[in-house]
Structures
1.
Amino acid sequence: MPKHERSPRRPGSPQVMTTADVEALRVNPALLRGRRGAPPRGVTDTDRFWSYIDVTPYCWEWAGLRDRDGYGESQYAGRKRKAHRVAWELLIGPIATGADIDHLCRNKRCVNPDHLEPVTKAENNRRARATRTHCPRGHERTPENIYTRKDTGATMCYRCVLERGRARNAST
Ligand SMILES: [Zn+2]
Ligand SMILES: [Zn+2]
């Protein structure tokens, strides 16, 4: 399988996950605060991870710390890891060695796997250059097709959103 293609999806994969499903994964952050910052017994890294997600109508935004590049930064399995990569591994599966995870929504805080795609570093760089005039999937960035979110400044491509919706309907 070429690196730029998605891994096979598991049952219950994010393509069929709704905002409500993600809300259900969330753990009350107040429950996670043990004494002196140590999490209470029985709280797993995964519980902790999902408690940091703010579900918006489009993106699932990491509400915890961010690294200096603006990506969500999680503490997972004893080390700092980019939150969107952890989300991909939890919901889809392992990331091929050397692969970057590209944000199709261009919102670096987003961990929604529907908005993420594993690509080679070369492809990721190529897209970063090309996105000035086209979205990552090659749709032209026109004022009619591109929507800028007021809260995050992230831009989204309407045609991509439409196509993903159609692909989802076709596969179910
Ligand atoms: Zn997103
Ligand atoms: Zn597009």
2.
Amino acid sequence: MKKRGLFISVEGGDGAGKSTQARLLAGWLRRGGMDVVHTREPGGTSIAEAVRRVLLRPGGRVSPMTELFLYEAARAQHVAEIIAPALKAGKTVLCERYTDATEAYQGWGRCLPLDQIRTLNRIATGGLQPDLTLLLEAPVADGLRRARSRGKGGDRLEREPDLFHRRVRVGYRAIAKREPRRVKIVSWATGVEKVHEKVLLVVERFLTGCGFKIRETARASFDRLRMSGFVEARTSVKRTGSPFDKLRVSGIRRGS
Ligand SMILES: Nc1ncnc2c1ncn2[C@@H]1O[C@H](COP(=O)(O)OP(=O)(O)OP(=O)(O)O)[C@@H](O)[C@H]1O
Ligand SMILES: [Mg+2]
């Protein structure tokens, strides 16, 4: 029987760099021969993307409990349609936000009971948990500034007061403290490449610990990429979705 694939989630506050780092990590894993499905919550399927639009539309009034159920509904569809089948097929799933986000935002941010949230998380996912969670930490104010500057003041959650986002951060830290084996904190550094380097080192340690054979170490890979021109890679993030695919990195081959 085929072995279940690896499940990695990327968490953190708004504007912490989740999408940027997930894209870069997906590129590294793919060059290492992994078949990677990069997805995000809320969303990832057409139903869940529709729920995302309802959830994040600025101005709409949504009660905390409704918000919680909408997130869980989107998650149930996402797990059933994307995550579980990909893992079953032996693929690596890289997901921006997952159950920890609900605990941090709806539990700590909205002050809904944590035990109810954990129960709903379990029901929506059928108990499927990530093998590794990268928790990206950015100073709350900086992250929010970056996130809000993208749209007209940010989406519905990004518009919540800073105090809400500080509670979310405390919540994320509590989860990391409770589950230190699964959740690894990646501390903030100014510069996408510096955080990318930290992410690679954490993932490399994790993969080695699981018995994966790494063909090129994170550091060697990173140095090579830097020499190949990280600036070029960074500027092409949005356009290609997988910037490093353009760069030739010898030493990592596809296949077993
Ligand atoms: N370490 C960093 N140093 C400086 N700028 C960064 C860093 N990481 C990300 N950025 C910039 O911050 C902005 C937000 O990054 P990104 O979209 O990856 O965050 P996110 O966590 O996915 O945000 P959201 O919560 O809104 O989905 C982008 O413009 C990105 O280029
Ligand atoms: Mg994002």
3.
Amino acid sequence: MTPTEAIRAEALRLGFDAVRFTEALLPEAARERLDAFVDSGAHGGMGWMETRREQRAQPRALWPEAVSVIALGLNYGPDYDPLASLEQRHRATISAYAQGRDYHDVVKKRLKALGQWMAREFRGQPLKVFVDTAPVMEKPLAAQAGLGWQGKHTNLVSRSHGSWLFLGEIYTTLALEPDAPESDHCGSCRACLDACPTAAFPAPYRLDARRCISYLTIEHHGPIPKEFRRAMGNRIYGCDDCLAVCPWNKFARAAAEMQFAPRAEIAPRLAELAGLDDAAFRARFAGSPIKRIGRNRFIRNVLIAIGNSGDTALLPAARVLCEDGDPVVAEAARWALEQLDP
Ligand code: B12
Ligand code: SF4
Ligand code: SF4
């Protein structure tokens, strides 16, 4: 077995769904696009996109010894329609990626297990493992390795898993035979661009994060800008609209990883969520990615959904939160009241 064959076999044994190899070198175009994204301010308040830009743009700027990158994918395909709850306006829509256990933990654990196996197998060859939070351009690297292509919604689309792959990488000093990149199979389709409720794509393959509901509900601090509140509907954590409409999802399968299965009700009632105090929020979302936005940002989002619900039974929940100690929550509660009882 060649080293790549052995690593692929071990990664699949550990439960990864896709494994490909590429050189630890990104083309200049990736840097130029990252520069264009950040220089135009499209990253909004994600200051960390700016601070370690050099390392993000080029693997060897992060780790000069890196020779190859192992690009790995873990399927989190939902076994239900992630857009079905959008019509249930007294309930919350939570992105499919956040229904189960935090993928950072699940993917990191697998990456570490593969890293330990490699350390034994290829003695003396250092490596580093990454998922999401490091300054690594995960999608361009995965596309270059042939795991899929960056669709017009900017995420990686796979011929076998559609839009539903989490990405992780191993940077290694091993010289591994690179795989061929995947070509773009979007063609004339523009379903994702047309599905976006907030018109967050200024052009195909380009996202303005400041308009994206995923950014607004997860990354954005402070009040949600008024122009996007109506369009958020009942999406309280992330957004799946552009991913879910992709025709390549017809080849996707439901996640085999049980830890990604919904841990509770897929679309919980807004009334129940609005009542969570800090302790109850932390207990309910322990081990979930939702925990990281904290109770106040979460309740802010729930209140926008309450304002959009048209359900006057939710008026008492909004009224109570007008007195909340957090000014952003209190302002969102007043907005919700105005929508329900103008
Ligand atoms: C910042 C970030 C966000 C931001 C910005 C998203 C974005 N598109 O940049 C926000 C908070 C909005 C976000 C949202 C989501 N995210 Co996010 N996010 C990231 C993060 C940390 C960095 C991404 C980044 O570098 N963006 C900067 C821009 C410049 O990079 P880019 O999108 O690759 O841009 C390229 C294109 O614009 C392209 N391009 C430009 N012009 C052209 C023209 C052509 C012809 C082509 C081919 C390409 C092209 O070139 C650029 C650079 O190569 C990554 C993890 C990581 N470390 O990479 C996760 C990551 C991208 N997110 C992920 C997920 C799952 C999501 C959500 C689906 C979550 C949700 N359901 O709410 C949404 C999807 C929203 C969307 N349509 O992108 C996954 C995506 C997995 C996949 N299969 O692709 C990642 C990889 C995390 C992971 N490890 O799994 N995210
Ligand atoms: S995640 Fe939602 S808001 Fe963001 S670009 Fe996709 S469809 Fe638009
Ligand atoms: S919905 Fe269409 S345009 Fe968008 S990523 Fe999928 S194939 Fe490409």
4.
Amino acid sequence: MRKLAFGYSTRCNIKCEHCVAAEDIPDCRKMDHNTAKEIIVEMAQAGVGGISFSAGEPFLYFNEIAELVKLCKQVGIYTRIVTNCYWAKTAKDSENLVSELKENGLCQLRLSYSRWHQKNVNRNNVLNAAHSCQKNGLDYFISFITDFSIEDDPYEQFLRDEGLKFFPEPVIYAGRAASFKRRNILTDYQENCCEMNPYLTPDLDMYACCDAGSHFSETNFFRLGNLTDNSVEQLFTQTETDPLYRFIRTKGVTNIASFTGMKAREIITYSKCELCRKMFNSPETLTRLRAEVSQLAAWSR
Ligand code: SF4
Ligand code: SF4
């Protein structure tokens, strides 16, 4: 099923130190509301079955997002909103907004939580939002962003004590987090395949990767094009047929790194997105991989 991260606006009311938003990108861009509606209809026609409203903080444009959720429901698209929960200060505030979204057909709320988010948003807001979801029968989960350091233990314990559904997610060392000290990790020698859902910006640029991939500034490897010059169908077809994107999905970035000559001992010191950046944000490595795509295709067990 085709899925997409829909960046209606890059505006956020807080400024987390770990945010993948790059400092050099203006943080107040917003999509025209009617354009967004037209794109959603076009997406449904192109077989997009799931949209995640993410990027900045979607609740800053609550009425507009609620309307877009309703439209998605009408055209048969599954919807998720990713939020920092600033709006859930009280159980009542939270209840009002969550029940409206549920009525409009929202399928899932993803609540962001971390020691960086919680410098600006009280953790009880996350609790209120989760409780409202439970009360309204709205699927939710908490995305617990962590660098796996001991500092995060009390944050994890809070979620456990409250019996909330959460999934740890590693910090992506891009954007503001690019300046963080790299963890000294030794991972398993795992494939690191990546689903790669595209990301649409408020300026209608579409990228093949919704996370760190829109910030590969040396190569622009993941940029697919702009929806003013291309149809949704064309850009999705591009992401589905590009051989290197396909290899990221099927072979995984670890196997590609090994193909380029990286030592196994070095590969296991990188997290998935860092390894991806090391190869695909390097003009030399990318040129080589493009030239050797058939050899890479044959690089299998
Ligand atoms: S991580 Fe999320 S909540 Fe924090 S600044 Fe970035 S968009 Fe806003
Ligand atoms: S591994 Fe690459 S394609 Fe996958 S999320 Fe990270 S940057 Fe994007």
